[in-house]
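Summary for the lay section of the report: proteins are chains of building blocks that fold into shapes. Here we show the chain for CLD34 protein and then a coded description of the shape we predicted for it.
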Amino acid sequence: VRRSHLQIAAFALGTVGWIMCTISMGLVGWRVWHVDNTTVISSGIAWVGIWKVCFISYLHVSPGYEEQFCHKFKAFESFVPHEIYAAQGLLLIAMILGLVALTATIFALRNIYMGIANKAITHFFLVGGCFFIFSGLCVLIPVSWNFYSVAHNESIAFPPSYHMPSSPVSQEVGAAIPIGIIAVILLLLSGTFSLSYVFPAISNTNMQ
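The coded shape description reads as follows.
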């Protein structure tokens, strides 16, 4: 057990990283657009996520009330930029890889704490560590790509039905990107800790 402290930390960090990856994927605030035409987008701010775009409007509601309107991206719409499609696919893959990594890590830790001296433990930590790292890289790519798009104020040619301008006056990073960055750090650390496991030479002593 004394040799598995880092692997316990790997499981804890991997769990938090996987949860944060899931939260990041679900948030609409990847890119925050500031627009000058407030006829429809009453607040002057729109949130561009990887699944939909949302904004607050006072149209079609009673005075003094506001309503959030969202348009979901349909599959293979030509106006959706590549970084958003990449984020959709890679974050789904990251979730699956992270889940496999957590399962392998739990199984290895279970064997250690039950006193099962089996070199297969090393293989499970190896699988868990590799999948944690792959999961982290799958989050890193879309997070970095979308951050680049924000930094360069890149436009999106929304169709008229979205009531969105093709270019914002300015844009900034939404909450989803820093959450994704933290998820990347935690997943990569988790993978590194899992891979550092060394099967004890005197298993009977160390498994007590």
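Put simply, here is one thing we learned. The chain has one domain: 1-28+78-196.
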